[in-house]
Write a structure and sequence with these properties.
The chain is α/β, with parallel strands linked by helices. It has three domains: about 1-40; about 70-280, P-loop containing nucleotide triphosphate hydrolases (Rossmann fold); about 285-460, Ribosomal Protein S5, domain 2. It has twelve helices and 22 strands. The protein has helices spanning about 40-45, 50-55, 80-85, 105-115, 130-140, 155-165, 190-210, 280-285, 330-345, 370-385, 410-420, 450-460, and strands at about 5-10, 15-20, 35-40, 95-100, 120-125, 150, 170-175, 210-215, 235-240, 250-255, 265-270, 275, 295-300, 305-315, 325-330, 355-360, 390-395, 395, 405, 425, 440, 445-450. The strands form five sheets. The chain has a nine-stranded mixed β-sheet, sandwiched between helices. The chain has a four-stranded mixed β-sheet with strand order 13-14-16-15. Helix 9 packs across helix 10 (about 370-385). The protein starts with a strand and ends with a helix. The chain binds thymidine-5'-diphosphate and magnesium ion (MG).
């Protein structure tokens, strides 16, 4: 039966669908994001997510739904399983997004290898690379079990036929932007193709109870169908981040219907694939300069884990009228605010200085708990006086220069003690959590009420 061609408009940001064009997306309120796409009416009827789920849509009694212990598949790569909430849930659709070349294919091939070694039926579908290229990558990663199946295909109909036939427990589709469905108008990677392909995969995952990982490249401009508009269709969204030129990679959960979203997995890219980094603090603090000014350690909490990191600042007189402020890894507005607080409350003439702040190791932090360490690093560089190698600072700074309490201070302090630090500067209001004792596991606790108190410590050193 010949199908009619319909025109629909999709928002490239959130995936909102509308029959009419509008300048502003009614859903996410972004401007100029509604793009026209032609879809055959058959595809419109069959491709909908609602339709995909319709087969399972009979009401059930909540208390009668069985839940087994064996519900999650653990790959054995602890950093990966933790981000997923303890393992992969069968029948879930997981989007793995990230910049091109960051290591998504490598990560998923390694995950597939671990699954297949455990006797789980795995299918790796690649629309990007030839079997030879994948084999070459696999050679670098080490021994592969004989049961891992590979399919190099971009036609989604063929892919879904193979999946129905093979019935794998885990399937990887690398990448969604290369998948093509000839029922739908548009080139591979266009909004309608990506959306409808995802809907087909969603149906497959739910009907066959197969966990499907979809790889999606994030496009800088966000104009081409990026994985962002797929976020609401899938069960779990993971982002693989890191500096392409550094070896440090972070797998971050952004959405998870089956677990917490604030967990991270830390990896290092080596010549033979990705290696887990079970102790990120040690890795991040490696090669710290000794007895240098402008460097202070702090502790941030990522998910459930405390991670120590080094904050570096370089403050020098500006050669131009307007001072330069630059930051890598921390929020620039926050740094400007902290410098204004230091200028006003301590009377330091930072207004005449350029300032560069860097979080060593390529981490990104948004937590205000590192405020005190940033401020101390700035002052230490300004005064050219080291703050001390065995010192760690934790605390949020308020506009009046007061040092405010931070969450989970005990966890942060004990991580610092484990890593061999000797002095820990903490907000005075947090002392009650340590029963006002002056030390904790051999770590000397120094309570401070304001930035002024903290800066005295630098001068004394
Ligand atoms: P890849 O997984 O192809 O990235 P993506 O799928 O996200 O586009 O990873 C590509 C980069 O990783 C490439 O620059 C080479 C590097 N790499 C290593 O450093 N070591 C390795 O063992 C492998 C397989 C890749
Ligand atoms: Mg790839």
């Amino acid at each position: 039966m010949a199908s009619k061609i319909k025109t629909v408009f999709f928002c490239t940001e959130c995936g909102y669908e509308s029959a009419k064009w509008s300048g502003q997306c009614p859903s996410c309120r972004e401007w100029n994001t509604m793009k026209e796409h032609s879809v055959s009416d058959r595809a419109v009827k069959t491709g909908r997510i609602q339709k995909a789920l319709a087969e399972a849509s009979k009401p059930l009694l909540l208390k009668e739904i069985p839940l087994g212990d064996e519900d999650r598949l653990a790959s054995g790569i602890a950093e990966f399983d933790r981000v997923l909430g303890g393992g992969t849930v069968p029948g879930s659709l997981i989007l793995v997004g990230g910049d091109p070349g960051i290591g998504k294919s490598t990560l998923l091939l390694q995950v597939c290898r671990m699954f297949s070694e455990k006797g789980i039926n795995v299918l790796y579908v690649s629309g990007e690379e030839s079997p030879k290229q994948i084999k070459m990558r696999a050679e670098r990663l080490g021994e592969f079990s004989s049961s891992l199946k590979l399919l190099c295909e971009t036609d989604l109909q063929s892919v879904s036929e193979v999946v129905k036939e093979e019935k794998p427990a885990v399937c990887v589709v690398d990448s969604i932007q290369t998948m093509f469905n000839d029922e739908i108008q548009g080139t591979p990677g266009s909004v309608s193709q990506v959306r409808e392909s995802t809907a087909v995969l969603l149906k497959l995952a739910k009907t066959l109870n197969c966990a499907i990982f979809i790889v999606g490249h994030v496009t800088k401009e966000g104009t081409v169908a990026g994985p962002r508009m797929l976020e609401h269709m899938v069960d779990t969204v993971l982002y693989f981040e890191g500096d392409r030129h550094a070896s440090y990679r972070v797998l971050r959960g952004v959405k998870n219907r089956f677990g917490s979203t604030n967990e991270i997995g830390v990896f290092e890219m080596e010549g033979s694939g990705l290696k887990e980094v079970p102790n990120p603090s040690e890795y991040l603090l490696e090669g710290r300069p000794q007895n240098a000014s402008g460097t202070v350690t702090s502790c941030t909490i990522e998910g459930t884990r405390p991670i120590l990191l080094e904050i570096q600042a370089l403050v020098c007189r500006t050669a131009f009228g307007i001072p330069r402020r630059q930051s890598s890894g921390a929020d620039l507005n926050r740094i400007n605010l902290l410098m204004a607080v230091l200028e006003k409350r301590l009377g330091l003439h930072l207004g005449e200085c350029d300032a560069y702040v860097n979080i060593a190791g390529g981490m990104r932090i948004v937590e205000p708990a590192v405020d005190l360490a940033i401020a101390m690093a700035v002052v230490s560089s300004f005064l050219n006086a080291p703050a001390g190698d065995k010192l760690i600072a934790i605390g949020e700074i308020g506009l009046s220069g007061e040092v405010r309490s931070v969450s989970r201070i005990e966890q942060r302090v004990s991580e610092a003690a484990n890593m061999g630090y000797e002095i820990c500067v903490i907000p005075a209001v947090c002392m009650s959590r340590f029963k006002n004792k002056k030390s904790f596991n051999g770590l000397k606790l120094v309570p401070v009420e304001s930035v002024k108190d903290a800066m005295e410590l630098i001068k004394r050193n």
